[in-house]
Amino acid sequence: MRWIRIALPLVVIVAGLGWILARGLNGSLVYFLTPTELLRGGAGAPGQQVRVGGQVVPGSATDMPGGVRFMLSDGTTTVPVVDTGEIPPLFRQGIGVIVEGQYGTDGVVHATTLFVKHSADYRPPAPGVTPTVADLGPG
Questions:
Q1: Which of 93, 112, 101, 83 is nearest to 38 (CA)?
Q2: In the 8-state DSSP scheme, what is residue 38?
Q3: Domain range for residue 2?
Q4: Are residues 5 and 21 in the same domain?
């Protein structure tokens, strides 16, 4: 009987901590839709905020005043994107990106944020070479 008085509060505390942990993790996970999921209605009605990920179709990126226009593909479906936010220096044709913005009634993702997937490979400078500010990119 004495172990029940100890075990029951411990079970309640552990369950409460588990619930708090699960709710905290659920709120911090970041998902994105593929162009196929977006066009199948995964984002809901046009005009809603979306996060879409895929590859920049080679040859599709064109600079425009205040941003860039390109096609985003998941290998099956392609969706046009107009990004008016700041373009990361690593942005180029054929690279993986995630865009955040609104899916318009015109069928275009009007992005304000662009995340570029980059390699996780670290290559240190050659022996005796000191990196310059130009090697570090814009700061």
A1: 101
A2: I
A3: 1-30
A4: yes
